[in-house]
Design brief:
Layout (H helix, E strand, L loop, with lengths): L1 H17 L31 H6 L5 H14 L6 H13 L3 H13 L6 H13 L3 H14 L6 H13 L3 H9 L1 H4 L5 H13 L3 H13 L6 H13 L3 H13 L6 H13 L3 H10 L9 H13 L3 H13 L6 H13 L3 H13 L6 H14 L2 H13 L6 H13 L3 H13 L6 H12 L6 H12 L1
Length: about 450
């Protein structure tokens, strides 16, 4: 018995030693011993590509092309796919599509293998600019000229471009031709087609596509239901939209904040504001927290009906619930005040949103600028113009012409010169009628505007 115990004790000691465990020390639950073979991991930072880093600082199409050629000549290594794709994206964003064609030609000539994402993004840019034929051509050239395998992603991209640009017959044809092209439409494909028929005002055909989707065992998404619910609610058919909502829940699809916002909008159209508000607060019981979009529906409806005080109270309540207002919410208030010729209050909202950390968009500035020009407060309008220029935005030329003429009446020649200089920098011009009105207004003033008229005429010639 003693011999057996001693053997077990020796076995335990040898096992602990082989595992690098010291039995005499107390166990530690806060540190981990490192084995001799284990080495600390080195964190490698990816070095930025110099060309791409310089490209980010360039915002003129001609400079992008020049930079591309300069790097091509000065560096030993040739441009690769990341360089080409970055430059092409930049040119497309700047709407320099001749430059895009130039780089695509070089890409093809050098036989550089491309990723599909480049073409998907480019097809989208073509679509936004109405260059649908270019988008179609690129889609067909992807596998032929660029050795890039097309997937459902590029198929859906071209399908969406056709629908967005109201090329409905071609969208229908390419969708029906999907099998021959080697694609099996997914939920995104069907969603685009449902959207198309609803835009055309053909809900029966949209329903047929939805039924076909189910027949092909393609699972509908929340977007599938939201598209149809939104269409019905905007037509005042809230009850039909609600039935579709209930069917959606019954089939296990969880509604999101967009779903509820569409239903709330439907109730507001029927002047059932209290029901819409109740629906928003009932959302949380269905595990869907109200978002800025839902508050926006209620605030917009209140502003339309002139109940701006109630809208302000809802804004306060929204902030208490830690829902941060976005630019669209603030724009509702600014639009209301400008419509009521209360541009000074609209300006206060503009200041408040900036203090709250919300960045104004172009429409925000333009509404306030137009509001001041409408009420004849050209000094404040000039302040907003300065803020717009600093932020990279620019007002409509029609309203800017109104500001220039207003400043001329006040004798503020230097301010008019400043505006004209900013227009030259931003490559903006007045049309002939605007120039004619400005020159006539300058000549009609009692003060001497000879220098300004000369300056204006020089801008006209340039």
């Amino acid at each position: 018995m003693i011999n057996l115990q001693s053997k077990l004790f020796k076995f335990r000691i040898s096992t602990l030693n082989s595992c690098n465990i010291v039995p005499s020390g107390p166990p530690s639950y806060h540190t981990r011993s490192r084995s001799p073979q284990e080495r600390p991991r080195k964190i490698f930072k990816r070095k930025p590509i110099p060309f791409i880093a310089d490209l980010k600082q360039t915002n003129v199409a001609e400079d992008v092309i020049s930079l591309f050629h300069d790097y091509q000549r000065s560096t030993v290594s040739k441009h690769d796919y990341p360089s080409y794709s970055s430059a092409i994206y930049k040119l497309a964003k700047l709407r320099s599509f001749d430059g895009v064609d130039t780089l695509l030609g070089r890409l093809r000539a050098h036989n550089i293998r491309c990723g599909e994402s480049l073409f998907v993004g480019l097809i989208g840019h073509y679509g936004k600019c109405g260059l649908v034929d270019r988008a179609i051509h690129l889609f067909h050239e992807m596998d032929v000229s660029f050795n890039c395998v097309r997937s459902l992603q590029s198929f859906n991209a071209i399908l969406n471009v056709l629908v967005e640009n109201r090329r409905y017959c071609e969208a229908h044809d390419i969708f029906r031709d999907s099998r021959r092209l080697g694609f099996r439409p997914n939920s995104v494909s069907f969603n685009i087609m449902i959207k198309m028929y609803l835009e055309k005002g053909e809900p029966e055909n949209a329903r047929e596509v939805f039924d076909e989707m189910l027949g092909r065992e393609v699972e509908p998404t929340v977007v599938t239901y939201n598209t149809q619910i939104g269409f019905l609610c905007k037509r005042g058919e809230f009850e039909k939209g609600k039935l579709l909502f209930e069917d959606m829940v019954r089939k296990g699809k969880k509604p999101n904040e967009v779903t509820y916002a569409l239903l709330m909008e439907g109730l507001c159209i029927l002047q059932r504001f209290n029901d819409a508000k109740k629906m928003m607060f009932d959302m949380e019981y269905r595990s869907c927290k109200p978002r800025v979009l839902n508050y926006g529906v209620l605030i917009s409806d209140l502003a339309k009906r002139g109940e701006i005080g109630e809208a302000k109270r809802l804004l306060v309540e929204m902030k208490k619930r830690h829902v941060k207002p976005d630019a669209a919410i603030y724009n509702v208030f600014i639009s209301y005040f400008c419509r009521e010729d209360r541009a000074d209050e609209a300006y206060r909202v503009l200041v408040d949103m900036q203090i709250a950390g919300c960045r104004p968009v172009a429409a925000t500035y333009r509404m306030v600028f137009d509001g001041f020009c409408k009420t004849g407060d050209f000094g404040e309008g000039l302040k907003v113009f300065n803020a717009m220029s600093t932020s990279g935005h620019f007002p409509r030329t029609e309203t800017l012409c109104c500001l220039v003429m207003g400043l001329l009446e006040l004798g503020k020649v230097d301010d008019v010169s400043f505006i004209l200089e900013e227009m030259v920098k931003k490559k903006r011009v007045f049309d002939f009628k605007s120039w004619e009105a400005i020159v006539k207004d300058s000549c009609a003033q009692d003060k001497s505007f000879d220098n300004l008229i000369t300056e204006i005429l020089s801008y006209c010639v340039n």
